[in-house]
Amino acid sequence: MNGTNQKEQFNIAYVRVIAAQAGLNPGRLEVDDESIDLELGGKGFTGAIRNPRVQLQLKCTSQDMIDGDVIKFPLPRKNYDDLRETGVICPRYLAVLLVPEQSEHWVEHHPEHMTMRNACYYLSLRDFPETTNKSTVTVSVPLTQRLTTVSLRYLMTLASNLEVAS
């Protein structure tokens, strides 16, 4: 498997692990034509929507893209346009996973546990402005918006209340 495919599979596994701990049901759309790699469903929430869903565009990189307190990520124009769309039922987020350069450093096995490296961060592009860029749009993903079990539950709670994270 080439490096790009390895990153894609590791990213899916990483988010699925967090979703499992959060009690969320991950699923994939049959065709990826709307920049959605993974959809997460919740159950038993108390907002306007009892069974909310959020959709994620997953990106994984080993490049050093951190600039101060953000990740400067060059997002393909199609993904940018799809994720900033407002006429959608489910909130959509970009999730950027930062990993070490060498894949053998992505997972560490210990006698009593396993460690996955490094960390994933999310950003809502809802209501972002149109762009004249042809191929990519660089977005700033805040390092404060780390994708964790708690933050995934928070995103689902917002979706349950018909809201989107800023």
Task: From the structure above, extract its key features.
3-stranded antiparallel beta sheet; about 170 residues; globular; Trna Endonuclease, Chain: A, domain 1; alpha+beta
Tell me what the structure shows:
It is a single chain. The relative contact order is 0.21. The chain has helices spanning about 5-20, 75-85, 150-160, and strands at about 25, 40, 55-60, 65, 70-75, 90-100, 105-110, 115, 120-125, 135-140. It has one domain (about 5-160): Trna Endonuclease, Chain: A, domain 1, CATH 3.40.1350. The protein has a five-stranded mixed sheet with strand order 1-2-3-6-9, sandwiched between helices. A three-stranded antiparallel sheet has the order 4-5-10. Strands 7-8 form a two-stranded antiparallel sheet. About 25% of the residues lie in helices and about 30% in strands. Helix 1 packs across helix 3 (about 150-160). The chain contains three helices and ten strands, in the order H-E-E-E-E-E-H-E-E-E-E-E-H. It has about 170 residues and is an alpha+beta fold. Strand 4 (about 65) and strand 5 (about 70-75) form a beta hairpin.
